[in-house]
Design goal:
Strand order of the largest sheet: 2-1-3-4-5
Number of helices: 4
CATH topology: Cytidine Deaminase, domain 2
Structural class: alpha+beta
Strand content: 15-25%
CATH superfamily: Cytidine Deaminase, domain 2
Helix content: 25-40%
Distance between the termini: 28 Å
Oligomer: single chain
Order of helices and strands: HEEHEHEEH
Shape: globular
């Protein structure tokens, strides 16, 4: 477990805009340059127009960092309530978004708000990710 990522994701989770689902999610990522970016989910009455916490964190990273180590994800932390006792992992779209900025072995720490955590690799979450250069 990455304590800093958990704390940042859990803190930003409180700011989620989730008036419809009431399902608050926080995400934080650490870049290869060591910078941490956090984001939360934002819902809209037109559900497909909202976005996930991971997307928000990636957007913060892109806005702040030029190409290079500042845009390579070294670790991810996601905090959300469990669903039916299971940890909440990134959705399929976010798995692909994360994979485009991370390596297959990048750890993705998923935690509930108490701090209990399970860690996956990007490869485990998205074994056949699309690649920018067309290779898989």
């Amino acid at each position: 477990m990455d304590r800093e990522l958990f704390e940042k994701a859990n803190a930003v989770r409180a700011n989620a805009h989730a008036p419809y689902s009431k399902f608050r999610v926080g995400a934080a990522l650490r870049t290869a340059a060591g910078t941490v970016f956090a984001g939360t989910n934002v819902e809209n009455a037109s559900y497909p127009e909202g976005w996930c916490a991971e997307t928000s964190a990636i957007a913060h990273m892109i806005a702040a960092a030029p190409a290079g180590p500042g845009r390579r994800i070294a670790a991810v932390g996601v905090v959300a309530e469990r669903i039916d006792g299971r940890f909440t992992t990134p959705c399929g779209g976010c798995r692909q978004r994360l994979a485009e900025f991370a390596d297959p072995e990048t750890p993705v720490h998923v935690s509930d708000p108490t701090g209990e955590t399970r860690t996956f690799t990007m490869r485990e979450l998205l074994p056949a990710a699309f690649a920018l250069d067309g290779e898989q």
